[in-house]
Amino acid sequence: MIQHRAQQEPSPAPAAPARALLPTIVPALLVGIVASLVLLGVEAAAEQLEHLLWRDLPDALGVGRYSVLWMFVVLLATAVAVGLVVWKVPGHAGPDPATTGLDAPVLPPVVLPGLVLATGVMLAGGPSLGPENPIIAVNVSLAVWLGMRAFPKAPEKGWVALAEAATIGALFGTPVAAALIISEALAGQRIKGQLWDSLFAPLLAAAAGAITVTLVAEPVFDLGLPAFGHPGWTDLLAAVTVALAGALLGMGAVYAFPHVHGAFRRLRHPMLMLPAGGVVLGALAALGGHLTLFKGLDEMTELGHDPGGWSAGEFAVMAVVKVAAMVVAACCGFRGGRIFPAVFTGTALGLCAHALVPEVHPAVGVAAAVLGMLLAITRQGWLSLFVAAVLVTSPGVITLLVLASLPAWLLVTGRPQMQLGPDGRAVR
């Protein structure tokens, strides 16, 4: 009887043999290194242009580096420059950025120079977007274009997975973020063999990208906030409350996204949409100050080093201005991603909670607010938990974050996302 049952039951799918995975090692390493070098090259060029625009020129002209007038001038000039690229450069710098996310499309090679140029100018000029979406698109397109020529029989989706993982690993300086995102993406798919067979090559590409960036740039995400000890019930209440506040602020931006996008689309031409966006961004910068400019990584580190240096009202203004600037920049046509600005918004919101209620530990407030914001903006649960945890590097916060993520997830799941479809409606 037992023997008959054993014969009837299907045997588990065998794991992919090692000899099938070994040939992926060299391509994964190459994609990881090249993807990280593309990211480093764009950011290095943008940094040099940023120094020229925000340090050398205003010093030579005798105006304040971050005076209201200069912020208006640079943001408007940046918008005009990006508008010219979108209008005149072949490929028009890729698709509408409001319709793209981390899952990048494969673009024709002719599009990539304009996309890189528009991204570099945007990073230098101060709009509140990060490099993640366009750089992933560039690396994915390069990997597919070169890989399919070197190995015509290899599936295109394999090169896409390698490039996405490599870029994410390079962006965060660790392959863990890529592994978490890929695992979440694979959750709804039927996987042949073991999960780690599917993760093997992308994880290797992510590790190669992360190591390359770490050797060259040494990225640091720890905000240097005061250490957090053992969590208590009041800390759990604070984490849940602040995470929900972050998710609510993020969902406000999500619901505003298609309306703001529609308003700019009515202008119909990039040389109208982008300059109009530059003017709005200048007004927001005048309201929120220079810390609300750029992608926000250096600026949130500055906030973290002095959590008591601003009032609750000032933190609240920075959070609201930053999220508004992110929505405007993405809707008017600037090429960029939304993760890093969302993290800055969460940081400011968490420090606002600490300033309002000193019993809210700054590490708990920041991590929970970032968690809520990222859940609303990205709908990537593992990524949100990972980023929130690495900002504070306090092991005691992790349990609080996991518990706080559950009510925040109930608030955001099933609702529109901060990404539009071809019809201009929010993706669900």
TrEMBL record:
It is found in: Membrane. Keywords: Membrane, Transmembrane, Transmembrane helix. SUPFAM superfamilies: Clc chloride channel. It comes from the Bacteria. It is a multi-pass membrane protein. InterPro entries: Cl-channel_core (IPR014743), ClC (IPR001807), ClC-type_chloride_channel (IPR050368). The chain crosses the membrane at residues 20-42, 63-86, 106-123, 135-152, 158-183, 195-216, 236-260, 272-293, 313-332, 339-357, 363-378, 385-412. This is Ion channel protein.
